[in-house]
Amino acid sequence: MKVFVIGAHGQIGKKIVSKLVAQGDQVYAGIRQPEQAGAFEDAGAEPVQFNLMAQPEDLALAFKGMDAIVFSAGSGGQTGYDMTLMIDLDGAVKSMEAAEIAGVKRYVIISAEFTPDRSRWPRALQPYYVAKYYADEWLKTRTQLDYTILQPGTLLNDAGTGQVTVNPEVGGEITRDDVATFTVQALRTPATIGQTIALINGTTPIETAVQQAAK
């Protein structure tokens, strides 16, 4: 499978790239800075200069010939709310538009837990949740993409556990490594198309949990 990872240099993005390469996929790592290229070349991926501030028609050029796109980008906690809108919302939407221009159907996006429920948005992160909410809604209602939306809980840098709970009634935490593993599994599971899946660490092996979420 030829997969383009948007936000490949992010903490989850790096892990997704590594896991895709390990299972033999041809991975194209979307990066912002030229100096980031070497690490991905060493890891067996193809680095591609990719700027979410560009127009959809320009972004689409990088997607030609891809089988799938994974959106794991984010403006990061060091930027202002303006960049949250430009990257987490408009950048995501433009990448969806670009996917359709390029004729790539499969699209997986990493969102956040509680995104569908405004009453549960953390006060300090409300602008971020606004961006995630409307990006998810655009994907579901304004595109014809074969999407999967993943909504992980609070992210941890701990070692992956290999176990999760999908669509929990309460919030929780999950390692970035487990999010990456789940993303790669979901990408290869056609039954997750059209699904919005919340996930936190739990007791179910990820391979089994992906199948449960797909039902």
Q: Could you write a compact summary of the structure shown?
A:
This protein has 215 residues and is of the alpha/beta class. Helix content is 39%, strand content 23%. It contains seven helices and eleven strands.
List keywords for this structure.
11 strands; 215 residues; alpha/beta; 7 helices; globular; two-stranded parallel sheet; 39% helix
Describe the structure.
Helix content is 39%, strand content 23%. The chain is α/β, with parallel strands linked by helices. The radius of gyration is 16 Å and the shape is globular.
Q: What is the topology?
A:
Elements: E1 2-6, H1 11-22, E2 26-31, H2 37-42, E3 46-49, H3 56-63, E4 68-71, H4 81-102, E5 106-110, H5 126-141, E6 146-152, E7 154-156, E8 163-166, E9 173-175, H6 176-187, E10 195-201, E11 204-205, H7 206-213
Parallel strand pairs: 1-2, 1-4, 2-3, 4-5, 5-6, 6-10, 7-9
Antiparallel strand pairs: 8-10, 8-11
Oligomeric state of the chains? single chain
Tell me the major beta sheet.
9 strands, mixed
Termini separation: 24 Å
How is the largest sheet built, in terms of strand order? 3-2-1-4-5-6-10-8-11
Average of pLDDT:
96
Q: Given the structure, what is the number of helices?
A: 7
Indicate the proportion of strand residues: 15-25%
Please tally the β strands and state the result: 11
Helix content: 25-40%
Rg, Å, rounded: 16 Å
From the helix content, strand content and strand pairing, which structural class follows?
alpha/beta
Unreliable stretches:
none
Q: SSE string, helix = H, strand = E? A: EHEHEHEHEHEEEEHEEH
- The shape is globular
